């Protein structure tokens, strides 16, 4: 296909306006960020409407005819042109260089235009496939064709622009476009392109100074060296003993890849992907209907707005450490609408139960809002309430819409997320190339009590680690056994095993392979809670603490709090195959997805005592009882000497 006729026509328009030579239009595009600060050729081109640009152009080897682009309720957006604008082999003439995209929109959909999530993925020269933001310029405004065509520029940073210019071959500049991603009402959808644009020659003034005419030519060809993926997410949280609510969370995804890529290019050895990483604020799952209604209606806002006549306190607690002489715990987090708590409380709870609650106002432990609130249902225990990924996703979006900006990835209110992430992770944007032999460490805890700890208190915690490879291609053997066995073997959610089996069957029947890709290990917290609420009074803070202390002593937990890492706009960019030491990149087209795992109740507290230790503890108990009896007898003997007893007996005999 040749688009040089359209290019020349646009150039002539600009020449007439500015009495200068310029080169433009051909296909898809993305204008560099320099257009924002440069008045002149690029600004003039960007201000021309897409409808005017298309008149008289050549698309697909044919003259542009609006009849070829009807309204189609079931049609999908298509890229119809990728424009290389003002390329020059001379460095002093490269400031006008830019790239642009033209989209045919058969449904006349109103794309979101004030967004950075509209993107295009392509590669050129020796550069790897990469995604670039599409900046909206305009859409067709012809009566009856409003929005039928859109015009975008490709946003390029200075480094990106220079890298592209350096990578291009001066005489044959090849751009391989994988996909465009367009946003409608906050939802991103991928539209595969599979198109190769080859530019040669120059617009007059940008090539040789001796050239007396334009030599720019653009041809378009198919590009089938890419793969469309249908990606599904799964999560794995190892079982173990409850210890401060902390669990390991392994996030993975699985997808089918045609066999031909393995046959032609070898083993899958690397996957390039990107995402935005954040940790949620605490989320509450409660069986207390009143607290649920009040907190849910805050939609993630500050708990200070809870009520004008009722106060509440919710405390998440660590392990309960029992001994022969009592039990103890410490708080892992708490929230309340009461502003001023004393540093400590002494509270009588029940008969001879003296409770000392300390550090009630520790600012590290206190938090001000819930990212989400869920109800167990009437007469149901928090231990049985699992929150699905869909439920959580829906509530985060609903709360964000009410809370408003500032937003993360333009949809989620920043107020629902923490300002930190795990360990050496990067908060916000991440772009990684994860290799097949990369490993992720997952852990679980085992708690034990020795004989002395059973008696006097305390416990030991052993953290056990396991390493799993990042990328595996599944086989029949991997899916043998029960769902539980498969889940443990593959480190996936047991609830997703059915879906994995189904995808594997599809892969086998279609000549494909099923790939399991582990991309992120993070911490998950799920912590039991005690709750209380009462009418607002001068002593409500004291009453709330007493009620929570009594609930803890009685083991009356009624809720749990959870926190997790989410991976927003997770997107796979390319798959890398290796054969005989040669790497081949296969670009990927997929719709970005928000990886938000569901919530699970806390693990059980389970202190493991070895049998021998239990027997020793029993022996010690018997000995202790004997010693105690002996001490009592000694005390009696000391207080009531033997002769005194005899005298009393003899006196009674005489009487």
What can be said about this structure in brief?
This protein is of the alpha+beta class and 655 residues long.
What do these coordinates show?
By secondary structure, this protein is α+β, with helices and mostly antiparallel strands. The chain is built from 13 helices and 34 strands. Strand 5 and strand 6 (130-139) form a beta hairpin.
Helix content: 10-25%
Question: Which percent band covers the strand fraction?
Answer: 35-45%
* Structural category: alpha+beta
- What's the count of strands? 34
Instruction: Tally the helices.
Output: 13
What is the secondary structure topology, with strand pairs?
Layout: H1 4-18, H2 41-47, H3 50-54, E1 58-59, E2 62-63, E3 78-85, E4 98-104, E5 119-124, E6 130-139, E7 149-154, H4 158-167, E8 173-184, E9 187-200, E10 217-222, E11 227-228, E12 232-236, E13 246-258, H5 259-265, E14 267-279, E15 283-286, H6 289-296, E16 310-317, E17 321-323, E18 326-328, E19 331-336, E20 344-348, E21 354-358, E22 372-375, H7 389-403, E23 407-408, E24 412-413, E25 428-435, E26 439-448, H8 451-456, E27 460-469, E28 471-473, H9 483-490, H10 497-509, E29 512-535, H11 540-553, E30 559-563, E31 565-579, E32 582-589, E33 593-595, E34 607-608, H12 611-639, H13 642-654
Parallel strand pairs: 11-32, 15-22, 26-34
Antiparallel strand pairs: 1-2, 3-4, 4-7, 5-6, 5-8, 6-7, 8-9, 9-10, 12-13, 13-29, 14-25, 14-31, 15-30, 16-19, 16-29, 17-18, 20-21, 23-24, 26-27, 28-29, 29-30, 31-32, 31-33
